[in-house]
Amino acid sequence: MKADGDRAESLALEFLLTRGCKLVTRNFRSRFGEIDLIVRDGRTLVFVEVRKRGRSRFGTAADSITATKQQKLIATAGLYLTRLSPQPPCRFDAVLIDAEDRLEWLKDAFRP
């Protein structure tokens, strides 16, 4: 399972890098949760949730980013931002991967 998650994150990272993003860190953890990728898209700091779904039986990859998951991501990002001064513009994106490894980048997937 972890190997699948690592592979999905690597696919997402390569996808974002080829679109001009720059990696800041992977797997930032806090007591609230984990952010898969933190990248820069120009001047914007982007907190990226990577979701892979093999089957749509339990909903889409986007459906799996629930309100509870969003709150954990927001809290973790808030902790990360306490390290930065001044704080850059930020957003929350998602990279969704389907069973055939097709990727979809949802910019500004949700807002705090």
Polypeptide structure, described:
This protein is of the alpha+beta class and 112 residues long. The protein is 28% helix and 37% strand. It has two helices and five strands, in the order αβββαββ. A five-stranded mixed beta sheet has the order 1-2-3-4-5, sandwiched between helices. The termini are far apart. The model has no long low-confidence stretch (mean pLDDT 91).
Quick overview of this protein structure:
The protein has 112 residues and is an alpha+beta fold. It has 2 helices and 5 strands; from the N terminus they run αβββαββ.
Overall pLDDT score: 91
Largest sheet: 5 strands, mixed
How many distinct domains?
1
| CATH architect. name | 3-Layer(aba) Sandwich
Q: Do you know the CATH topology?
A: Trna Endonuclease, Chain: A, domain 1
Number of strands: 5
Instruction: Using the coordinates above, name the CATH class.
Output: Alpha Beta
Structural class, judged by helices and strands? alpha+beta
Lateral arrangement of strands in the main beta sheet: 1-2-3-4-5
3D shape:
globular
**What is the chain-wise order of helices and strands?**
HEEEHEE
- Cα distance spanning the termini: 29 Å
Number of helices: 2
